[in-house]
Design a protein that fits this description.
This protein is of the alpha+beta class. The protein is built from eight helices and 15 strands.
């Protein structure tokens, strides 16, 4: 089935969607993005994604293409037009195009480019991967320093995914100055003696929307949380580990660099957090 996508104010068949070859998102990766999950035909954590989008745009002095209210209308319309019950909505905003290539930003009155499309993913909430758990490897983190801005500069994370695939694993955690930063497309955690440990917020990692929700829900469930730097060796000695992201929610990790965690199956706390997150998010979905 041909999807209906959104491009600069128009709903179009995906086969008719076009942007300029001079668009700065294409030429310079001068763009930011968000991914919002859809469960039961409703949007998960839309408010958080909208707020983070504005922050990313502000940090890059990039104009917002529309209001938050209009953004919600567009999201809902795409869910309806594409009949999405479970899936994702990808949103990208670029600095636009002034008709040529230049390192200097275009004039302030240049209109940003906005593109949205859906991905239909039946069974997203009950994925086999979440029941099996992920195997990860560790790799060096050589990305730019502003990882808190959700840009489309995703070449190295993509390479990290491929490194993991070639090693027979599912994903990679990145290491900088001896400490884990985050996964290629997710935030990283481990659990030891009942305590959840994760890296604190800074410019070194993405301020995950799912991360924020999961930590709040964990605190409400009286779980112990410690936000601090940690090494990959600490994670290897953990009882369990997991990642969080908008597209995978709470994903168990069962192996790190070939070292099995616990009995090699998703841990008790991780499974409980996934249950709580999915239950609470469905209740709050819009």
């Amino acid at each position: 089935m041909t999807r209906t996508v959104y491009v600069n104010g128009e709903y179009l068949p995906e086969t008719e969607a076009k942007i300029s070859i001079f668009d700065r998102g294409f030429l310079m990766a001068d763009a930011v993005y968000e991914v919002t999950s859809v469960l039961d035909g409703k949007l998960i954590d839309f408010e958080g994604h909208a707020v983070r989008l504005k922050r990313s745009l502000d940090e890059l002095d990039m104009a917002a293409p529309c209001s938050k209210e209009d953004l919600l209308i567009i999201h809902r319309k795409l869910v309806e037009l594409n009949d999405i019950e479970e899936g994702l909505i990808y949103l990208q905003v670029t600095r636009g195009s002034d008709g040529d290539r230049d390192f200097v930003f275009p004039a302030d009155d240049t209109k940003p480019t906005i593109v949205l499309f859906t991905q239909n993913k039946p069974g997203l909430a009950d994925s086999p991967a979440s029941r099996k758990g992920a195997k990860i490897i560790s790799i060096d983190d050589i990305r730019w320093g502003r990882r808190d801005i959700k840009t489309v500069q995703l070449l190295y994370p993509s390479m990290g995914k491929m490194m993991a695939k070639k090693a027979g694993a599912d994903d990679a955690w990145m290491i900088e100055d001896g400490y884990v930063t985050e996964g290629t497309s997710n935030n990283a955690y481990f659990v030891k003696n009942g305590k959840i440990v994760t890296r604190p917020l800074s410019t070194d990692i993405l301020h995950g929307i799912t991360r924020k929700a999961v930590l709040r829900m964990a605190a409400e469930a009286q779980m112990e949380i410690e936000e601090r730097l940690f090494t990959i060796d600490e994670a290897k000695e953990a009882d369990e580990a997991f990642t969080t992201s908008a597209s995978a929610f709470v994903m168990p990790v069962v192996e790190i660099d070939g070292v099995q965690l616990g009995d090699g199956t998703p841990g008790r706390i991780t499974k409980r957090l996934r249950e709580i997150y999915l239950d609470e998010s469905r209740k709050a979905a819009i």
